[in-house]
Design brief:
By secondary structure, this protein is α+β, with helices and mostly antiparallel strands. Helix content is about 15%, strand content about 25%. It has five helices and 29 strands.
């Protein structure tokens, strides 16, 4: 999550069930966030255990796919409303109802229009498909059949992307408050060839089994990273040394974020890093060539922009598409006008639509690590990735990418650095050697929805579950009736006269009838 955090402390292998607040103690964001993570983990694990890898409620299962081809200028899908769970994560496909505006003066009041019962492939809220991009289009009828699947993941949303999160009563001089985590669902096509299916008319079971194998390969990242803090060369000459034996030499506590920029094999992959967990962002008001008009600048020198900084100009659409964009360098600052000039224009189609809330995200690398006495040249503004060697970031912090990894855009690792210890917080073995770790995110989840056969329609691949509640069995009804009769007889006995006298059989029967 790109958020201003102190650190992330949730570890499912520790089996903590709750965070216990203590009186008179400092409250940290990490404690609150760990409690949220514990609850989410418990809830989603329970849902996945009961439902399975994916499924929807029998009477309200969402994401029914309807293929619409040949009747429009471009093929599309109808994604019908309802709910569906993928690895315990709730995905809601219902369209929100539009609001009813106040009518104009002397105009008749009109009722709000009913929302469509479905999304389409092109207007689904988080996929941001573009008909002008051939790679976004659905396979042609000649390429049918193909699988339609659901991709689910989570990303952070700050006030830069959703201005409604900002409390305007706090004023523009104060920073925003809490960020949000958002479930992103995307309905996408997949060819049978990608599933290694040669049959042109496969069964449901064959498609589901092949898809499960494909999804397992997509979900499991092969990239691994370790981090450490080493005492840099010539450290004795630094007058700002915090501790004589310090290895991390930064003046402040930091949360470093190392994130894959361009994915692929190691020879093609790049990464970027931030000492603020990638949380330094600037909402954009206007884009004019290489000049960018910002809604606000940073609140202090640590959270501001400077000439030479590398920034990522993006918006909600590209943040959801997980596609790397070239990082741009700040060439000039106009502080009174809240404007910055970049060394090149942003990519076409990015940052120019206000409703997509464009913003700049600052990254803190300026050049690649030095190798053999030379500084590594950046590629697309990001650092070329090298495996099997320690790569310095800054102030003694170093990272190591394991060999033979495959990298995905958005995968990231979090490295807390602390001045109190002069080191970074990273798991080690008993010999204090840093351990290689899988990415902290992004966790991707997949579920098959339909096998589209072109003009022959679509075969539903979803799974459904029924409610657990059911009618009380007849045998139990008889048992309950007998228990009720016994209770009434016992109550009648307690209500009998206590003078020691006895009642006749006729009197007892009359009393029982009166109770009935």
């Amino acid at each position: 999550m790109h958020a201003d955090l102190s650190r992330l402390t949730f570890r499912p292998e520790r089996h903590y069930s709750a965070v216990i607040a203590q009186q008179g103690r400092v409250q940290l964001d990490a404690d609150t966030n760990e409690q949220t993570a514990i609850q989410l983990h418990q809830t989603r694990t329970l849902a996945a255990d009961l439902i399975g890898r994916h499924g929807g409620p029998r009477d309200a299962a969402g994401f029914r796919i309807e293929y619409v081809g040949g009747r429009h200028e471009i093929d599309t899908l109808y994604i019908h409303g309802g709910r569906y769970y993928v690895d315990g994560i709730l995905c809601d496909a219902d369209r929100p109802a539009p609001g009813v505006p106040v009518p104009e003066e002397d105009a008749e009041e009109q009722e709000g229009a009913e929302p469509p019962a479905y999304w389409t492939y092109w207007d689904q809220p988080d996929a941001h498909r573009d008909p002008e991009k051939p790679g976004d289009r659905l396979p042609s009828p000649a390429q049918a059949p193909f699988v339609v699947y659901l991709k689910v993941w989570e990303r952070s949303v700050s006030a830069a992307e959703d201005p409604a999160l900002r409390e305007v009563a706090l004023g523009a001089a104060l920073p925003d408050t809490a960020a949000r985590a958002k479930v992103v669902w995307q309905v996408l096509p997949l060819s049978l060839a990608a599933l290694d299916i040669e049959d042109t008319d496969p069964s449901k079971e064959d498609v589901r089994e092949a898809f499960d194998r494909w999804a397992a390969a997509q979900s499991a990242p092969s990239a691994r990273l370790a981090a450490r803090s080493e005492r840099p060369d010539r450290s004795d000459e630094d007058p700002c040394l915090v501790k004589p034996d310090a290895r991390y030499r930064g003046p402040e506590n930091q949360l470093y974020r190392v994130e894959v920029h361009a994915g692929g094999a190691a020879k093609d992959a790049t990464f970027k890093w931030s000492r603020e967990n990638g949380s330094v962002v600037f909402p954009i008001e206007e884009l004019d060539g290489t000049w960018v008009q910002l809604a606000s600048l940073g609140h202090d020198d640590k959270l501001d922009l400077d000439v030479g900084d590398l920034v990522e100009l993006t918006d909600t659409a590209y943040a959801s598409r997980l596609e790397p964009l070239p990082l741009l360098r700040v060439e000039e600052l106009d502080l009174p006008g809240r404007r910055v000039r970049l060394h090149a224009e942003p990519a076409p189609g990015v940052g120019r639509l206000p409703h997509l809330n464009p913003f700049l995200r600052r990254w803190d690398h300026h050049e690649g690590p030095r190798r053999k006495g030379r500084t590594t040249k950046l590629k697309g503004g990001a650092v070329p990735l090298a495996e099997g060697e320690w790569l310095p970031l800054e102030d003694g912090v170093e990272v190591y990418f394991a060999k033979d990894g495959t990298y995905r855009t958005g995968d990231h690792w979090i490295v807390p650095a602390r001045t109190a210890t002069g080191s970074v917080e990273w798991p080690t073995d008993p010999a204090r050697r840093p351990l290689l770790q899988a990415p902290a995110g992004i966790a991707r989840h997949f579920a098959p929805l339909a096998l589209v056969k072109g003009e022959y329609g679509a075969v539903d691949l979803r799974l459904a579950f029924g409610p657990l509640a059911a009618n009380v069995p007849a045998a139990d009804e008889a048992t309950l009736a007998a228990e009720e009769q016994a209770r009434r007889e016992e109550q009648a006995a307690e209500d009998a006269p206590s003078d020691g006298g006895s009642r006749t059989t006729a009197e007892a029967e009359a009393a029982a009838e009166g109770d009935e």
